[in-house]
Amino acid sequence: MRVVINRLSAVGQRTGIGHYTSQLLRCLRQQAHGDTIDAFPAGWVVQARAWSARVRRYVPRTEPAAAETRPSLWAQMRCRAFDHLRWRFDNYVARHCKRYYQSRSFDLYHEPNFIPFPSDLPTVTTLHDLSVLLHPEWHPADRVRRFEREFARALSQSCHFLAISEAGRQEIIRTLNVPPDKVTRTYMGVRPGLKPLSEAEVRPVLRRLGLPEQYLLYLGTIEPRKNVLRLMQAYCGLPEAVRRRWPLVLIGSWGWRTADIAEYLHTEARHRGVTYLGYVADDDVPAVYNGARALVYPSYYEGFGLPPVEMLACGGAVLASTAAAVAETVGRQAHLIDPEDTDGWRHALLRVVQDDDWWWSLRRGAVEAVRSFTWEQCAADTLQVYRLLTGASQGPAWRRAG
Questions:
Q1: How far apart are the first and last CA of the chain?
Q2: How far, in Å, are 24, 51, 199, 258 from residue 382 at the CA level?
Q3: Strands 335-337 and 294-297: what pairing?
Q4: I need a surface site. Which of 7, 42, 277, 295 has the fewest CB within 10 A?
């Protein structure tokens, strides 16, 4: 069996899809047992994409994501020029990929990021969620246009779909009218190194990052569906003495449609204990989780909800929303709150920093609660789909954790 996987989403700064792609590739290759798991593109194409990802951080967006004022006309022109070059590059990669796939006699193509490159190969596509289709107002206009232009072709090209939660699987079946036997749930996993750490391991990292000794944590891309504005509003309603002792730290890259979030951060929240740290390197994330009093994750909608699972793997307390996939993955351990219940979030924030007994109850059993979420199991379930579709013989099954 010869499978090729598009690895572009794993290049540069990684969000959830990037981690999914890189960890899945790592474990698939460990379990392949003579099968070929190839990743494309490689060489200069990956280097160019990594370079563009680094440069993109210095190109201002057309919305005031990280500044109090809207970028100048010249800055907006630079942004549009960069996006055009990125679009041209991606089109070139798509053409190059098709030639590569045809020349290597692959049996299957796996696209881990929604929309596969055009290909005559049988195609497996991972649909992490359907938020672009169900809530286009949460996404940048160019992404919505791309889905409008290409998603129908992606559906017809794909012979099987992977979902990263059962809630996501049922949504795909229901919304896209896909037969249930063509959608398989493959849970995401916990990255290596995400575990409880000692204070001696945590404190040096926090000092280097400029983080306080105690804080509440939000980790994730700052975008509309993550509900960060409501989180800040709930936090700013806490008593001043509580906010001075327990700052709220926001970690993650700025996304899109963030003008109202940025305005509130700069005009209100920063003066009331909210700190924005930006993107943090993967190697520092375990210490950041371990140093936090609790992870606060008020998202309206998720395909899986990786940060809450990762926080539990570090033995931490989690306050999370009642979004279906989040409730499915961490609902038995985390404290869940309706994403629109501002008072509920404010009460939970206050309780988690003042009630030590409740805080310990949220942490007790946290690691065990997510022990079954492993990338090894994700890879084993994915390999089973590959072999089913290609008719390959079943290799040794990965033994389930827990």
A1: 30
A2: 9, 30, 37, 35
A3: unpaired
A4: 42
Question: Per-residue pLDDT tens for 316-371?
Answer: 999 999 999 999 999 999 999 999 999 999 999 999 999 999 999 999 999 999 99
Q: What pLDDT shows up at residue 393?
A: 57
Instruction: For residues 11-20, give the mean pLDDT.
Output: 80
Can you tell me which residue has the tokens 């575990």?
A: 195
The third-level CATH classification (topology) of the domain covering 199-369 is Rossmann fold (3.40.50)
Which two structure tokens, joined as six digits, stand for 253? 């890259």
Residue 29 and residue 132 in contact, taking contact as beta carbons nearer than 8 Å: no
Where in the chain are all domains bearing CATH 3.40.50.2000? 2-189+374-390, 199-369
Which residues lie below 8 Å from residue 365, measured CB to CB, with a gap of 6+? Answer: 333
Do 313 and 287 contact (CB within 8 A), yes or no?
no
Strands 216-219 and 248-251: parallel
Query: Which residues fall within 8 angstroms of residue 239, CB to CB, at 6 or more apart?
Result: 350
Task: Specify the pLDDT at position 9.
Answer: 84
What H or E segment, with its residue span, contains residue 400?
none
Q: Domain 2-189+374-390 belongs to what topology?
A: Rossmann fold (3.40.50)
| DSSP secondary structure letter of residue 231 | H
- Dump strand ranges (E) for 150-192: 158-163, 183-185
Tokens at residue 178, please?
A: 């896909």
| Whether the predicted pLDDT of 108 surpasses 90 | yes
Measured over the CA atoms of residue 196, residue 199, residue 205 and residue 206, the dihedral's sign is positive
Rg of the chain over CA atoms, in angstroms? 21
